[in-house]
Specification:
With 253 residues, the chain is α/β, with parallel strands linked by helices. It has 2 domains: 2-153, SPOUT methyltransferase, trefoil knot domain (Alpha/beta knot); 186-252, Orthogonal Bundle (Trp Operon Repressor, Chain A), CATH 1.10.1270. It is 42% helix and 15% strand. The protein has helices spanning 10-16, 20-27, 64-76, 96-103, 120-126, 142-153, 163-167, 201-219, 221-225, 231-252; strands spanning 2-6, 32-36, 50-51, 61-62, 84-93, 107-112, 129-132, 186-187, 190-191. The strands form 3 sheets. The chain has a 5-stranded parallel sheet with strand order 2-1-6-5-7. Strands 3-4 form a two-stranded antiparallel ribbon. The termini are far apart. The structure holds S-adenosylmethionine (SAM). S-adenosylmethionine is lined by residues 87-90, 112-114, 116-118, 132-134, 136-141, 144.
Length: 253
C-alpha cells in the first residue's frame, strides 16, 4: 500500500510514522508513507497557502490552488483506485470496519486541513470522502491522518507479528477487548486471575469472553445493544453482572 498525505507539516507525518508497528511496516516494505505540502505549489513569493474567508468571520481558509495542485501531484504517485480522503470533524466517523475497508485499498490520498478548514471547491473536485476521528475539533488534520494510517496499516496482511491479535482486538467482533496480564503473578498485592494460570484453554476462552461481554456492558452499552448475543453469551453476561453486583455490594458493607 502507498499512502500520500497532503499537509502543511510534512515533517510531522514523516517523523511520526517511524515508530512501532507502523515504522516496521515501512521498513519491511508493506507500506510507503509520503507527505507533501501545498506550500511547495504556492506561486507567490511568500508561498501563501491561506486567505480570509469570503463572507467575513474569524480565521483563515486553506486556499484552493496550492491544495489542489498538491493533491493532483500526490494522486499521480498513487495506484488507480486509491480514494482521496479529507480528514474533517464533520466527516464519517472512523471505525474499525472503516479501517478494514481502507486496508483493502491499493493506496490512500489523505488531506489534512488547518485553520478554519479547506476551500470547499477542493473537496468538490479532489476528495472522495470525509472522515472524522471523533466528535471534537483538532487544530489540524495531521493527528487524524496518523490515527487513520495507524488503524489501517496494522490490518494489512503480515504487518502484525501475530495475525490473531488483530482479530481479537476491541470492536472486531463488536465487543471490547478482555483484560490482559503478564508477569509477575502478584503485583503490589494484586494477583492475576487464577483461571489464566491453569492452562485450561476452554476455561480461559470462557473467562475472556465473559470479560469482553462484561466490559462492553459496563463501558459501551451502545455496542452491546447492536449485537445479537447467543444463549451462551447471554448466560456469561448474566454471570458477569451478578459477580459485578456482588462485588459492589461487598464493597458497600
Ligand atoms: N471549522 C472546522 C469545523 O468546525 O469543523 C474545524 C477546522 S479544524 C480547526 C482544522 C482542521 O483540523 C480541519 O480542516 C480538519 O482537517 C482537522 N480536524 C479537526 N477536527 C477533526 C476531527 N475530529 N477529525 C478529523 N479531522 C479533524
Amino acid at each position: 500500500m502507498r499512502i500520500e498525505v497532503v499537509t502543511l507539516f510534512p515533517d510531522f507525518i514523516a517523523e511520526a510514522v517511524r515508530y512501532g508497528v507502523l515504522g516496521r511496516a515501512i521498513e519491511r516494505g508493506r507500506v510507503a508513507v509520503a507527505a507533501s505540502s501545498p506550500r511547495e505549489f504556492a506561486r507567490d513569493v511568500h508561498r501563501t497557502v491561506d486567505d480570509r474567508p469570503y463572507g467575513g468571520g474569524p480565521g483563515m481558509v486553506l486556499k484552493a490552488e496550492p491544495a489542489c495542485a498538491a493533491l493532483r501531484a500526490a494522486r499521480a504517485r498513487l495506484p488507480a483506485g486509491s480514494p482521496a480522503i479529507y480528514l474533517a470533524a464533520d466527516g464519517e466517523p472512523l471505525t474499525q470496519a472503516k479501517a478494514a475497508e481502507l486496508a483493502r485499498c491499493p493506496g490512500l490520498l489523505l488531506l489534512a486541513g488547518r485553520y478554519e478548514g479547506v476551500d470547499e471547491r477542493v473537496l468538490e473536485t479532489e476528495i472522495d470522502e470525509c472522515v472524522s476521528i471523533g466528535d471534537y475539533v483538532l487544530s489540524g488534520g495531521e493527528l487524524a491522518a496518523l490515527v487513520l494510517i495507524d488503524a489501517t496499516v496494522r490490518l494489512l496482511p503480515g504487518v502484525l507479528g501475530d495475525e490473531e491479535s488483530a482479530r481479537q482486538d476491541s470492536f472486531v467482533a463488536g465487543l471490547l477487548d478482555w483484560p490482559h496480564y503478564t508477569r509477575p503473578e502478584v503485583f503490589e498485592g494484586r494477583a492475576v486471575p487464577q483461571v489464566l494460570l491453569g492452562g485450561n484453554h476452554a476455561a480461559i476462552a470462557r473467562w475472556r469472553e465473559k470479560q469482553a461481554l462484561g466490559r462492553t456492558w459496563q463501558r459501551r452499552p451502545d455496542l452491546l445493544a447492536k449485537l445479537e448475543l447467543s444463549a451462551a453469551q447471554r448466560e456469561l453476561l448474566e454471570e458477569y453482572i451478578a459477580e459485578h453486583r456482588a462485588g459492589d455490594a461487598s464493597q458497600s458493607d
